[in-house]
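Supplementary Note 3. Input sequence used for the single-chain structure prediction.
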Amino acid sequence: MSTHYEELLAKIENHTAVIGVVGLGYVGLPLAVEKAKAGYNVIGFDVQESKVEQVNKGINYIGDVVDNDLKDMVDSGHLRASSDYGSISSVDAVAICVPTPLDIYQQPDTSYVESSVNEIANYAKPGTLVVLESTTYPGTTEEIIRKALEDKGFTVGEDIFIAYSPERIDPGNKSFNTKNTPKVVGGITEKCTNVAAALYSSVLDGDVHKVSSPAIAEMEKIFENTFRHINIALANEMAVLCEKMGIDVWEVIDAAKTKPYGFMAFYPGPGLGGHCIPIDPFYLTWKAREYNYHTKLIELAGEINNAMPDYVINRAMQILNDDGKALRNAKVLLLGVAYKKDIDDMRESPSLKLIELLMQQGADFKSVDPHVDKFRVNGETLETTELTDELLEQADIVILATDHTAFDYANIAQKSKVIFDTRNAFKGIEMTNRYIKL
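The predicted structure, written as discrete structure tokens, is reproduced below.
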């Protein structure tokens, strides 16, 4: 008589396993589509009915998903969405891809993970694989996922299989996506690791790297993003110092990166954005307190990065002062609302903080973003506007916050009186008027 472990491996090998994905956002929807393209029948779960309806109509809302891929998978019957967790009873493996934000005290909010696994635990059948993909602090898989399933009478490694495999999504990246980015997998037992690795290997082109525990995989993910967090903070601090010394920090970085070893280029900017780098390191600082350890370097990096929007607005004030103008009532044109170039993702975007500060200072501002129509700041819904020559000519200062490819930089340079560039986006373009870089 075969075991649950052997049966699950066989279903994965012959692609008869039914796969569930909880959370159909930037991580979950691309993963669901890739699993469906690999030949599995996939059910996506989300509490937002609007997402469920869009998926079931084959309507894409995530930039990293190819529209036709989603529609083809829905039309073929390989992918459907539901808000009814009762359908968990029909799946053989389920990935949890829900948000893990910080609360107002900068502490991890695991409520989405908890509610998801509690629903899974209510309906899961023996022999199910449960993989957490949401970025979180080391220990979450053991403390939350394992406990919820064991409380329902499951035995890990025998009739339930639990693993952690961190998402590695970089929205807008043209080279690496869900399909070809290497995967890290750590299960609670060796069998848990093996079935999770087998599933990802059957779906993805990237290598699958096994680690000895979920905690290793959880810490690995935070280490990745903390590495970037700290190095961006260093670049930001260098930018502040170089400005005081009259040195072009962008030229400094270009020179430094000619060294073929021992240096990796990171760049300054108006602040950190996205779903990972501004948040993930603080999971670790919170968890470290449990061990009576203070993560000084991480927290200092956070202070530096969080201060950049204020620094940018203060610089803008100085630039206007040099022209005999105040920021209050000045016509400010902000280019870019999304947190990075060529995407519509506004999560933790530094531009939102810049706009909040402009509002506080009484500036007469307008924002332009070819990828974003509307957004919210302090509970207020604001709309972007179309970029015109008239807007550029009327602006007392143009602040480039996000370096979208769609912007006509040569025209902006020609029509603007004053440009404050926080991304070095005008590199190589002849400037006819006043131009200041971060």
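Residues 214-245 form the longest helix (32 residues). The mean pLDDT is 94.
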